[in-house]
Amino acid sequence: MNKPSYPDWQHQVQWLPAIDWNVKLFGGHERAVDRHWAMPQESHIGFEIILVLEGSQETVMGGTRYILHANDIILIPPGITHRNRCESDQGMRYFCVHFNVDDPHFRQEMIKHNRIIFRSGTAENVRLRSLLDHWLLMVRRGGGHSTEDRFRLQAQLFELLGMLASFSIPADAQQAEPAAPASVQYAKAIAEAMKAQFNPHQLDRSESPDNRVRIDRIAASLGISTGYALEVFRKVYGLSPRQYLSELKLHEAKVLIQQPDLSLKEIAERLGYAHLSHFSRQFKRWTGMSPLQFREQGR
């Protein structure tokens, strides 16, 4: 009997799906704040999940006001403008984690089904809390984190993404993943190109990140018009490429500022600012505090 050729037998077996995602954990922290605490209006390129440990928090998002009490959890999707503040007179304590996955289908499902609040005592809250408690214990343990810790963090992040995906799919929904439309693929390719071209760590700084990341060049490389590129990107990611680049800058700025061996002037240059004062003003618009205040707060 002749053995089937590869093109023949590959259609006779079941395959696992190919996965090509970029998944990132930006970090997490526990913090106690007084009753006057408030964050300025902001948005992020990734997801933000907040667990209220004590007291109450007000979150305003998309014109809707949410009040969270102890053990409530809120998930803030990427690109959503929001504002958080303490709602209780006795102050509050919270645990917050920022993470991201570049799969547009996941983003769309989370936004489409509007799974934002997970109230204390619900089955979904219990599942999320069990995982967040592992991270909270790691934060409270302090000290350095081993390679094993980092691998466990990554595995638990995938577990969290799996939980959130299961929460966003109705029980009667079809489980088979539909073929990705061309618009989603183009939007993802644009985001990948922007992240690749935005590299504040490169030694050659003859061209600023703003000049390197040109949506018209990216669109031309994909064989589509600039207008179509802008349209599909906003449709899939919920924000413009310019806003996405601004969020990339903000996250990178926060990471660099936490490195005490880097001067603020050098950080400003890496991010494409000709003068430190320009960077400082922009960072304060983003966060409500100066780069120096942000660095001192993290100590």
Automatic annotation (TrEMBL):
Highest taxon in the source lineage = Bacteria
Q: Name one Pfam family in it.
A: AraC_binding
Q: Which residues form the HTH araC/xylS-type domain?
A: 193-297
Any idea which UniProt keywords this protein has?
Activator, Cytoplasm, DNA-binding, Transcription, Transcription regulation
Coiled coil spans: none
Do the record's keywords include Transcription regulation?
Answer: yes
Q: Which PANTHER family match?
A: HTH-TYPE TRANSCRIPTIONAL ACTIVATOR RHAS, HTH-TYPE TRANSCRIPTIONAL ACTIVATOR RHAS-RELATED
Per its record, how is this protein called by name? AraC-like DNA-binding protein
| Protein species of origin | Paenibacillus phyllosphaerae
